[in-house]
Amino acid sequence: MTADADTDTVDSTNTAGTPSWAPGDQILWRYRGNATDRVHICRPVTVVQDTADLLAVWVAPGTACVRPLLADGTPVHQEPLATRYTKPRTTGVSPWSGTGVLKLARPGEPWSVWLFWDRDWRFKNWYVNLEEPLARWTGGVDSEDHFLDIAVYPDRSWQWKDEDEFAQAQQAGLMSAGQAERVRAAGRAAVERIESWGAPFAAGWEAWRPDPAWPVPALPDDWDRSPARIRA
């Protein structure tokens, strides 16, 4: 992981001898809008683990998160699919509802794996979120969501999710045919990982619990700042 002399951006490889976050550190997990450089999703998270092999973070219940909205305030997923990606958008802030989420990402991989539990900590499922490999900077990590996802269940069965959104995003011009094929290839690679029960599925993260002393991270006023224009 190397830092530019004039910015606080760093690349997605966390190698020995470079800065890492400590457990309990608070960072931002952000997504750019598709076909734009503007951040439209921002989740303050707490670092669980940051090593050369894995970044693990916790999204605590009640965390104030930035979410995309249609310009008239309609939640994106309430808009019919045919016009979901063509109407003007803005962003809003609302608390993370339900239980928290543990996010796991390996350097350079085009997906992250999320773990979900019920309120009584009964494990529900993993969720493979296909996305750009995380780009690290001093304040957190940035990516771009690729619409297509995979749900993975405790019995090791799996299923594709959001294939309709993936198709509609291509039709709306948010993803080229070449990019879509790369996303499909990443999905097939993720399925191979699932079927071989490779990392991180066999690592026992289902038994993990957050430190009760961790405060809920706050959303900073400059959550959408551009790392490329911020000096270290």
TrEMBL record:
GO MF annotation: an example = hydrolase activity
Domain DUF402: residue ranges: 78-198
- The keyword Glycosyltransferase belongs to this UniProt entry's keyword annotation: no
rRNA-binding among the record's keywords?
no
Q: Under what name is this protein listed?
A: DUF402 domain-containing protein
Q: InterPro entries of this UniProt entry? A: DUF402, FomD-like_sf, Ntdp-like
From the UniProt entry, list the residue stretches annotated as the region Disordered. 1-21
Organism from which the protein derives = Streptomyces telluris
Query: Which keywords accompany this UniProt record?
Result: Hydrolase
**What Pfam family does this protein match (any one)?**
DUF402
